Amino acid sequence: MTQAPDATRTPDADAVVTDRCWAADLRAAVFCSLALFALIMLVDFAAGSLSAVRAGLWAGLGALLYVILHPARVSAGPGWLAVRGPLRRRHVCVSLLTTVRVSETVAARVVLCDSLGNRVEFDPRVLAENPRLLHRLDAGARASRDAGLLRSGSVELSRLLARLDGREARAVFEASGLR
Fold first, then answer.
1. pLDDT tens digit sequence for 61-114
2. How far is residue 104's CA from residue 137's CA, in Å, rounded to a whole number?
3. What are the start-end ranges of the H helices in the chain?
4. Are the C-beta atoms of 150 and 144 separated by less than 8 Å?
5. Using one digit for the tens of pLDDT, what is the confidence trace for 157-178?
6. Membrane-spanning regions, if any (predicted)?
7. CB under 8 Å to 149, separation ≥6 — which residues?
8. Which of 67, 132, 164, 172 keeps 20 to 30 A from 50, CA to CA?
9. DSSP H/E element including 170
Protein backbone atom coordinates (compact mmCIF):
# COMPACT_ATOMS: atom_id res chain seq x y z
CA MET A 1 0.00 0.00 0.00
CA THR A 2 1.56 3.27 -1.11
CA GLN A 3 0.94 6.67 0.37
CA ALA A 4 -0.12 9.63 -1.70
CA PRO A 5 2.45 12.41 -1.74
CA ASP A 6 1.69 15.38 0.46
CA ALA A 7 0.46 18.17 -1.81
CA THR A 8 1.56 20.91 0.63
CA ARG A 9 5.25 19.95 0.55
CA THR A 10 7.56 21.01 -2.23
CA PRO A 11 9.58 18.26 -3.92
CA ASP A 12 12.86 19.50 -2.43
CA ALA A 13 11.57 20.30 1.07
CA ASP A 14 13.76 17.56 2.56
CA ALA A 15 16.78 18.24 0.35
CA VAL A 16 20.01 19.51 1.86
CA VAL A 17 20.97 22.94 0.54
CA THR A 18 24.64 23.93 0.41
CA ASP A 19 26.61 27.06 -0.37
CA ARG A 20 27.02 27.04 -4.13
CA CYS A 21 30.06 29.37 -4.05
CA TRP A 22 32.02 27.22 -1.60
CA ALA A 23 34.04 25.30 -4.20
CA ALA A 24 35.24 28.50 -5.88
CA ASP A 25 36.20 29.97 -2.51
CA LEU A 26 38.07 26.77 -1.65
CA ARG A 27 39.98 26.91 -4.95
CA ALA A 28 40.91 30.53 -4.23
CA ALA A 29 42.21 29.59 -0.77
CA VAL A 30 44.33 26.78 -2.21
CA PHE A 31 45.64 29.02 -4.99
CA CYS A 32 46.59 31.84 -2.60
CA SER A 33 48.40 29.55 -0.19
CA LEU A 34 50.27 27.75 -3.00
CA ALA A 35 51.13 31.05 -4.70
CA LEU A 36 52.55 32.44 -1.45
CA PHE A 37 54.58 29.28 -0.91
CA ALA A 38 55.92 29.31 -4.48
CA LEU A 39 56.75 33.01 -4.38
CA ILE A 40 58.60 32.79 -1.06
CA MET A 41 60.48 29.71 -2.26
CA LEU A 42 61.44 31.51 -5.48
CA VAL A 43 62.69 34.59 -3.62
CA ASP A 44 64.60 32.45 -1.13
CA PHE A 45 66.11 30.38 -3.94
CA ALA A 46 67.11 33.52 -5.88
CA ALA A 47 68.77 34.92 -2.74
CA GLY A 48 70.72 31.66 -2.36
CA SER A 49 69.50 31.07 1.18
CA LEU A 50 67.09 28.20 0.55
CA SER A 51 67.59 25.23 2.83
CA ALA A 52 65.46 22.28 3.92
CA VAL A 53 64.62 23.97 7.21
CA ARG A 54 63.59 27.21 5.51
CA ALA A 55 61.54 25.28 2.92
CA GLY A 56 59.74 23.56 5.80
CA LEU A 57 59.04 26.91 7.44
CA TRP A 58 57.68 28.31 4.18
CA ALA A 59 55.49 25.23 3.73
CA GLY A 60 54.17 25.73 7.26
CA LEU A 61 53.43 29.38 6.46
CA GLY A 62 51.56 28.36 3.30
CA ALA A 63 49.58 25.76 5.28
CA LEU A 64 48.73 28.34 7.94
CA LEU A 65 47.47 30.73 5.27
CA TYR A 66 45.31 27.93 3.84
CA VAL A 67 43.75 27.20 7.24
CA ILE A 68 43.01 30.92 7.70
CA LEU A 69 41.52 31.30 4.22
CA HIS A 70 39.62 27.99 4.19
CA PRO A 71 35.97 28.96 3.68
CA ALA A 72 33.31 27.68 6.02
CA ARG A 73 30.85 25.40 4.24
CA VAL A 74 27.29 26.32 5.16
CA SER A 75 24.54 23.79 4.54
CA ALA A 76 20.94 23.54 5.67
CA GLY A 77 18.30 20.87 5.79
CA PRO A 78 14.80 20.73 7.20
CA GLY A 79 15.11 22.31 10.64
CA TRP A 80 18.90 22.64 10.83
CA LEU A 81 21.80 24.74 9.60
CA ALA A 82 25.41 23.55 9.76
CA VAL A 83 28.75 25.28 9.32
CA ARG A 84 31.81 23.14 8.58
CA GLY A 85 35.22 24.72 8.93
CA PRO A 86 38.64 23.16 8.34
CA LEU A 87 38.73 21.60 11.80
CA ARG A 88 35.17 21.05 13.02
CA ARG A 89 31.47 21.06 12.18
CA ARG A 90 28.85 22.96 14.15
CA HIS A 91 25.08 23.01 13.71
CA VAL A 92 21.96 24.65 15.12
CA CYS A 93 18.30 23.74 15.00
CA VAL A 94 16.81 26.77 13.26
CA SER A 95 13.34 26.07 14.61
CA LEU A 96 14.81 26.32 18.15
CA LEU A 97 16.76 29.57 17.72
CA THR A 98 17.07 31.71 20.84
CA THR A 99 19.57 34.37 19.75
CA VAL A 100 20.55 35.93 16.45
CA ARG A 101 23.36 38.48 16.25
CA VAL A 102 24.36 40.26 13.06
CA SER A 103 27.58 42.26 13.13
CA GLU A 104 28.08 44.78 10.35
CA THR A 105 31.77 45.43 11.00
CA VAL A 106 34.66 44.87 8.62
CA ALA A 107 34.41 41.12 9.18
CA ALA A 108 30.61 40.84 9.05
CA ARG A 109 29.24 37.79 10.86
CA VAL A 110 25.90 36.15 11.59
CA VAL A 111 25.82 34.28 14.91
CA LEU A 112 22.96 31.86 15.60
CA CYS A 113 22.34 30.15 18.96
CA ASP A 114 19.66 27.56 19.68
CA SER A 115 17.98 26.34 22.85
CA LEU A 116 20.12 23.20 22.87
CA GLY A 117 23.28 25.26 23.46
CA ASN A 118 24.60 25.01 19.91
CA ARG A 119 26.14 28.02 18.17
CA VAL A 120 27.24 28.72 14.59
CA GLU A 121 28.92 31.72 13.05
CA PHE A 122 29.31 32.55 9.37
CA ASP A 123 29.58 35.36 6.83
CA PRO A 124 26.23 36.93 5.79
CA ARG A 125 27.43 36.99 2.17
CA VAL A 126 26.68 33.26 2.12
CA LEU A 127 23.01 34.07 2.63
CA ALA A 128 23.12 36.81 -0.01
CA GLU A 129 24.60 34.41 -2.57
CA ASN A 130 22.32 31.47 -1.72
CA PRO A 131 18.60 32.32 -1.60
CA ARG A 132 17.67 28.75 -0.68
CA LEU A 133 19.85 28.92 2.45
CA LEU A 134 18.26 32.28 3.25
CA HIS A 135 14.79 30.73 2.88
CA ARG A 136 15.68 27.83 5.21
CA LEU A 137 16.97 30.25 7.86
CA ASP A 138 13.93 32.50 7.50
CA ALA A 139 11.47 29.60 7.81
CA GLY A 140 13.22 28.28 10.91
CA ALA A 141 13.44 31.71 12.51
CA ARG A 142 9.73 32.27 11.91
CA ALA A 143 8.93 28.95 13.60
CA SER A 144 11.19 29.85 16.49
CA ARG A 145 9.62 33.30 16.81
CA ASP A 146 6.11 31.81 16.71
CA ALA A 147 7.05 29.34 19.46
CA GLY A 148 8.37 32.21 21.60
CA LEU A 149 11.94 30.93 21.66
CA LEU A 150 13.65 33.70 19.70
CA ARG A 151 14.34 36.17 22.50
CA SER A 152 17.10 38.28 21.00
CA GLY A 153 17.88 39.38 17.47
CA SER A 154 14.50 39.04 15.79
CA VAL A 155 14.61 42.65 14.57
CA GLU A 156 18.24 42.31 13.39
CA LEU A 157 17.39 39.18 11.46
CA SER A 158 14.34 40.82 9.89
CA ARG A 159 16.49 43.76 8.76
CA LEU A 160 19.11 41.43 7.30
CA LEU A 161 16.48 39.37 5.49
CA ALA A 162 14.77 42.49 4.12
CA ARG A 163 18.08 43.89 2.89
CA LEU A 164 19.05 40.61 1.21
CA ASP A 165 15.57 40.19 -0.32
CA GLY A 166 15.82 43.75 -1.65
CA ARG A 167 19.12 42.91 -3.35
CA GLU A 168 17.57 39.84 -4.95
CA ALA A 169 14.57 41.83 -6.19
CA ARG A 170 16.84 44.50 -7.70
CA ALA A 171 18.89 41.80 -9.43
CA VAL A 172 15.74 40.26 -10.92
CA PHE A 173 14.53 43.64 -12.15
CA GLU A 174 17.92 44.44 -13.69
CA ALA A 175 18.15 41.04 -15.36
CA SER A 176 14.66 41.41 -16.84
CA GLY A 177 15.31 44.98 -18.00
CA LEU A 178 12.60 46.51 -15.79
CA ARG A 179 14.91 48.85 -13.94
1. 999 999 999 999 999 998 899 999 888 999 999 999 999 988 877 788 899 999
2. 18
3. 22-47, 52-69, 125-129, 131-146, 154-176
4. yes
5. 888 878 776 666 556 556 666 5
6. 28-46
7. 96, 97, 98, 115
8. 67
9. helix 154-176
